[in-house]
Amino acid sequence: MGTAKARAPPRTPATPTQPVETSRYLPDKTFIIDNGAYMIKAGYASDAPAADESVSACSSIPNALVKTRDNKIVIGAQLATVNDWNEAMFRRPVEKGYVVNWEAEREIWDQSFFDGKPMARNRNHHIADPEDTTLILTEAPNALPILQRHADEMVMEEWGFGGYARCLGPTLNAWNEIHSLFGDPLSNTSETAILPADCLLVVDSGYSHTTVTPVYKGHALQRGIRRLDLGGKHLTNYLKEIVSMRQYNMVDESYIMNEVKEAVCYVSNDFAGDLEQAWKSGRKRQSGPEEGIVLDYVLPDPNANKKGFIRPHDPLLHAKKKKGAVSGLSAEVLSEDVLVLGNERFAVPELLFTPGDIGMKSAGIPDMILQSLSVLPTGLHSAFLANVLVVGGNALIPGFMERLETELRQIASAECVVRVRRAKDPVHSTWLGGTRLAAYREELSKVSITRQEYQEYGSGWAVRRFAGLV
Fold it and tell me: Which residue intervals make up region (Disordered) (predicted)?
């Protein structure tokens, strides 16, 4: 008989107290920037990264420069001071998930993070001494080397950070405490969960695109990464188009229509049924407001300092205004501009599941997940399907999670357990993962460079270092 194989010792979790290599100095103070296309999430790593309260140290800053109707230029966090969004023109430095305009991005970073800029005085995102700070910067998967080089040069040469780690955004989610999210027990060898998670399939659906990234022990499996060029921006644009054809011309009202999308849209779990219900609601003659799929969205009125809001659809009121029957209607009601939204509410986010509706030759998110798994070892399929984590702003669309899990169960192998979970805070989840990585200094040191190393070896070496080639 053959001798039994010795059991492998249990995997030891990384601990925040492990020392950094003595031959290289990485500044202890760590600043994390999740440089999203719509919002920048930024802040210092918390002293207690496992605490949910650490998200309070994160500031969300619009990643845009805006020219208002009165020709005023506002940058980043200054967008909070704008009251009139009519005909506002946006300039975004990020396209398709990648920073392609560092001139504009520098304006936003300077105004938001550094000395001498009024909006940088918030202590959560004020970088007083870059040379004494380690920066963790996220990037989207499959960025071109030239774009990576530009980012490295800006970070190390323009601002001169003392330490720097450029990470794939989805991989940072593996450092969050996700065991409780999936109902798994903690490690038998420790009172804390082992980090990073062994197998995690991250679905990141944000502003400019959606990616599926299999993450194994904190590292992305490159050949399994899949991308869908659909995100919140495209949903907003699609809503603008169909509303402009049917009602008011809203083509130039990106900000307002984004607000409309977030207020009314949902993912249908019975598309045909909801479509029929919306059609029947539009044909009924009611005597007053009714609850149902069809809603009224009252557009904002900057002259009266009124924000947009939703209310139940009132066919009678709509008919009176259309016919000019003003008797019994207040001046406020008469001045309202109202969008009537029916099947638009669920037809727009449906694109994430059936992009062919607008002629895209791409798979929807559930099929994209299976495409990702098809190039990975079969033995890992069940582990990844049991740990599907959804992050990004689109995860907050009502019905999105239920639809994704339902369709994934239908197409996955019957013997596989399918568990789809939304991160506790899907918008800030990647940033929170960065704060937890920052606590494990030895692990952070393995994926980062110092200012001295950059000055000695240059930007080409930095690109290879972050790619794991050196």
Answer: 1-23
